[in-house]
Fold each of these.
Amino acid sequence: MPYEFKAQRRVEFSDTDMAGIMHFSNFFRFMETAEHAFFRSLRFSIAPQQFEPGPNKIGWPRVHASCDYRKPLRFEDMVEIHLLVAERKTKAITYQIRFGKITGDTVEEVARGRLTVVCVSFDPASGTMKATSIPSVIADQIQAAPPELLA
């Protein structure tokens, strides 16, 4: 079962701040992009209409997001975004996301983030969300990464 996903992305000029480095907020956008690509690699989408028709729509709100920055990324840098499933519970998934600057054949870690999402169902009548079990069709395809990979 999958527990990791890697993507590459170039730092665009619009990703940078006045100091010429990637703005801290864009690391969170990159995390979300990697999460969506991970779901697509499993032939799913995080969009609610992808799942059961009718009133039983699900969503994936974020309940935690953090990032520790070690070195800057700059315009034109190539970045490896390495998503690892740190934990999969009945109703939530926590990802560890490592950002690596690609230089030739080497990847130097420059930041590390964490993102926790909870599976929720929507009640169309009240407009509320409630935590719910991750559908088995999704949960059965995702497992936590081995501890040695998360160190």
Amino acid sequence: MKQLEVQIMGQSYLLACPEGGEQRLLDAVERVDTAMCKIRDAGKVKARDRIAVLAALNLAFDVSDRGAAAMTAPVIVAAQVPPPAAVNGSGHEGDDPRLASLLQRLDGVLGGDGQLL
């Protein structure tokens, strides 16, 4: 098992990585670092652990959303299927009332720390 030293939000981490998986790990580190820095730079959340949890939730939601879209998308070779309604930074949840309800509950739990998205 190979080890890589990476930086996430300015902090060094030594991570184990299977041979041949270096680029995938570096790509994942880049996504996590970008997500965490975006939350930190928004200025609403200060604690590193809360930033990490919010970034993890955002990334997991993105993965879940892509998986659901792939399962429900019709198989059409010549046309591109539009992406599902995404949550953007402005707080518009699209037409999914379940997502709106979840975000409302999370925002209530977070209280003064800021909003999830």
Amino acid sequence: MHTAITKTVTPVRVALATCAFALALGAPGAFAQEDCAERGALDTMYCDADGDLVADAPTDESMLEDPDTLVFAYTPVEDPAVYEDIWDPFIEHLEEVTGKDVQFFAVQSNSAEVEAMRSGRLHIAGFSTGPTPFAVNLAGAVPFALMGADDGRFGYTLQVYTRTDSGIETMEDLAGKRIAHTSPTSNSGNQAPRALFPDLGVTPDEDYEVTYSGSHDQSMLGVVAGDYDAAPVASEVVDRMAERGLYDPEEVKIVWESEPFPTTSYTYAHNLAPELKEKIEEAFFSFDFEGTALGEEFAGVTKFIPISYQKDWAIIRQIQKTNGVEYTPQGLAAE
């Protein structure tokens, strides 16, 4: 049976862990693959000989990993304990298909999740849209699936919410207001707004004050409570919040909505044994959402579908390039 790994993290410990991660990333040294002919934006620990933008598996078979226990993490959320229960049926399925024990790892931040996979403590993970390129380039994460519908559709939109009585009707009305972004690495909560909003007549940090709430949940709840005038959030998150009765949809309205972005990427570590990777993919693509807590939580999702990081994350990489994001240890530390 799988068990949960839980941690109590104080702000001081978070700061220390962040510094340690930055230092570790800043000096890969002995881990660098000096004989790598092509790695693109990948860290020096990895190679990309086939040019698909993700880390190749080690050519030295002795470096391949086939652990008895797999550690799985889902992207940081407001209440990890709730999501541990939601993921329970899938983890049982993953155990059955792979023949491995599986532990659920409740991560505290995007940086901690990236660090855990880079250090070899995390084997399978769901990374949020924006942090996915950091996971790919700094941790050797290989995206292979995301949640979708039977017809192959997937994605979410960036929605800008405000209270119905706020007086805000257009994007230009955000000027001079207090707007909640989620976190620096978030795509819909920060990166996309910074890249897209100037063309809509309002520039973050110049035309309005940016306040980081920490999560889409907190941004939305802050708008409802009147703590923020408006907030850019991910549609899939606020939809689930409404289904759980965490806010009254009648109290808010959408000012603007983007075209769809890819959702959370499901990845495995690049150095897992090929047979294990095949079993992991089999577990994801054979999982039946119907009648499970996972299916109830992610309404409209019926299965995991295969993806290409090179193709499906192109728009995200372009947004981050526009914002000057670099997939380096210093870039992650800055985020």
Amino acid sequence: MTDRRRLLFVTGTRAEYGLLYWTMRRVLDSERSRLQIVATGAHLSPAFGRTVEVIRGDGFNVDAEVDMLVDSDTNWGTACAIGLGTIGMANALRALAPDLVVVLGDRYEVLAAAQAAYVGRVPIAHIHGGEVTRGSLDEGFRHAVTKLASLHFVSSEQHRRRVVQLGEQPQRVHNVGAVGLENIARLEPDGPEDLECRIGRRLGRPAILMTYHPATACDEDPVATVDAIASALDFLPEATVIATGSNADPGGRAIDARLRDLEQRFSGRLFFNTSLGQRGYLNAMRHCDLVLGNSSSGLIEAPSMGKPTVNIGQRQAGRQRAPSVLDCAANANAIRDAIDRALSPAFRQLASRRENPYASAGLDVSRHIVDVLESVDPAELKGPKGFYDVSFDLPAAGRMD
């Protein structure tokens, strides 16, 4: 048997790992490929649950750990982390010698990995390119990774067009749908009693699943927004709120510290957990009445679960939305009004239709991705990419209309 193709997956967060899980599992089980994993970022930090052990607990071997977190909750700290990550990734890639590097999304850990792979002439496959999130620095990271990658797996036709508009060859841009929807299709459902056992009491109604991340590309104060959410929740005295930890963006630690304070203030009503894990998170979504915050899961996964979403602030500005997503400003009155509307019978009925712009033709997304990863010629991907020019009329210089 010839040597199996080495496919290296980079993961830096619990959420990203959950999205990559079934694709990684399919590669692990393949006779044509060998799975390699590099864990980095928040996976290696006790403050974020040291979730690299979750990866190992799922039966995967972690081939390398690249520590890139710095003791700074600022934008400059993130810039330094990217530099450290690029150095560590270069050393890991040189040692592991993969045929292809697979990255997902738009975080700075992904940018660090893509920079190292690009300079090392290791072809990059990018999942979830072409999306827009104007309120986050991830917007720039995502499009930068697209230009470094040679193979693309996008979540909708609109996103495919955007990647081609960035100059990528159309035959290398595959619309497979959102990878997270396969997690829903394969979910092993728990009963509500399992969730109640985890939080130590019965669920009150409404039950709310909350995740809030910093809006790093705008002036939205993360702690003030969490306080605004708390003020809105004061008007729902019977509600149970299950809050998950923020990510490793600038301001994320301050959000988690404030949520721990609020857990004491809302004793018996708000429960904070750094990470529920993919299965725990999706099962919590199954049993909740509302998804609240600004996580992409509220826009991508929640609609396919039939759950209303209240999306707060600017972090997800520009991303495609299902009819079941309500946007509101990051202040208490707007959040309260949006929650009231989302919990109304008419809106819950609308959400129950499960309309989702990210739905693929089939939910076996990982099979489509791995089929392409195993069939492309890595040597061909190493060659000059070229630039695919799209024909369209541009407005005159200086005009915005």
